[in-house]
Design a protein that fits this description.
This protein is an alpha+beta fold and 146 residues long. It has one domain: Winged helix-like DNA-binding domain superfamily/Winged helix DNA-binding domain (Arc Repressor Mutant, subunit A). Helix content is 64%, strand content 14%. The chain has a three-stranded antiparallel beta sheet with strand order 3-5-4. A hairpin with a 6-residue loop joins strand 4 and strand 5.
Amino acid sequence: MKDLSNNILENIMGVVNKVLFLKNKKVVELDGVSLYPSEVHLLLMIENKINTNATQIANELNLTKGAVSQTLTRLEKKGILLKSKDVYNKNELTLIFTDFGKEILEECKKVESAFKNKHLEYIKKLDTNDKKVVNDFLKHMGDTFN
């Protein structure tokens, strides 16, 4: 029988690999327009923000400002949002969802909700100590990326 520690490590690497290769997988599609995980994640993040600072978005997502800018440009080309730069502050953007953007945002929220609910069902079955172990471990995993 394999050592449980090694088995856990193999499972971690399996999840990391799946997440890394998600970037090439369409996760939302509506009316022939496909969105990839980075686009969905950005849409969900900016949903309630009208005046947005590209640098702040980049910092919150741990991305470069260029990556955020490119993703916003792709979303604009797909007809999901309109962006305009503040003439007085080049980092400030005004982002407005188009009608189609609002529709596709709702699809993104459904995907996110289904993902969360799937895991919440499992988490609710854990006892308090197991929840603490899982939470501490996930915090440790997140800290290793900093």
